[in-house]
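Friendly challenge for the regulars: who can give me the structure tokens for this chain first? No prize, just bragging rights.
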Amino acid sequence: IWALVYTLSSMLLGAVLTRLLKLPSWVTPAISFNSTTSLPLLLIQSLSSAGILKTLLMSDTDTTSAALKRGTSYFLVAAIVSNSLSFSLGPRLLDHEETSDPDHAEGKPQLQVKNSPDGAQRGQQDAQANGHTDTEATEDTSLLPEYTVRRGAEAQEHGYRKGKRVWDKLGPKTRSTLDLLYGFLNAPLLGAVVGAVIGLTPPLHRAFFDDAQHPERGEHLCCIAGRTFSPSVVVVGVKLSNCLRKMKRGEHSGSIQWQPSTIVLLMRFVIWPAISISVIYALATRTNLLPPDPVLVFTLMLMPAGPPATSISSLTDLNESKPEDKMAVSKFLIVAYIVSPALCFAVVGSLKASEAVSANR
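First reply, four minutes later:
Bragging rights claimed.
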């Protein structure tokens, strides 16, 4: 619930600041979504290795390894919420400045199908007629046999026509609602649903995580999960490399605007940590809403803090932003992660506040 509250609050605050100060559209998602996967998990593992988590144990029978598992679970739940909202609502946060389609601007979503089957089929027929199908292959060229590709295109065209007839009969409000719900059918949310089904179903849970029968399976799954953040970092690095190449050639490669960058960094490293620590401390000391777990209090305080998520770079790709904007976002993310050691103040503040909560209970 806390992850949902601070993420939606950040969206509202970012949208207001963007409109009032006329900031670039990427400022809103940069304020809304912070790094909730790689950086927090590495941080809590480092705290466990340094023995700092010993001060956050629930009782004398509690152990550091158990506290580490609980903290990791709390951060992963927040990551599911943040990533689901990022890829469902994130592109909409960029639409108000990036799109110029009047129908879209009026809140009337259109049924869009990339690589229309008609065009794909005509393109294949033209290529076959000209005898150079292989010479004009691109990254979108199918590796399947021509017959399979043609039948697939025909099936896609048939489904598209049927769907379009149904879509055209719907009202504008129904279209907008369906379009919004469709945005939530993204990989993070679907993965969370699959994980919940596996974890809450005893036979599936034993099949995947029974260390007695398959001790290596859990280790392999944890190893894979621990490296899922790498692709987004690689994408940002590739874009930054392209920026440097353009700068060497004297071409425009996007510029870092210091006013929006400063606002985002202040929100992520100063304002949100202060709000989070104050709110969670008040809830833990004056109410009974939170269980007596110092690790939970610590993770809740730290969840809204940290640099913007690298997935913002992917959002600019999904939204088909200008190349200059994409490169400017990549540069800003590099700057944000350069100053990420400033997160230590939020970590220390959260630790001291969590210890104070534990001492008062």
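The CA atoms of residues 71 and 299 lie 6 Å apart. The two ends are 23 Å apart (CA to CA). Your move, everyone else.
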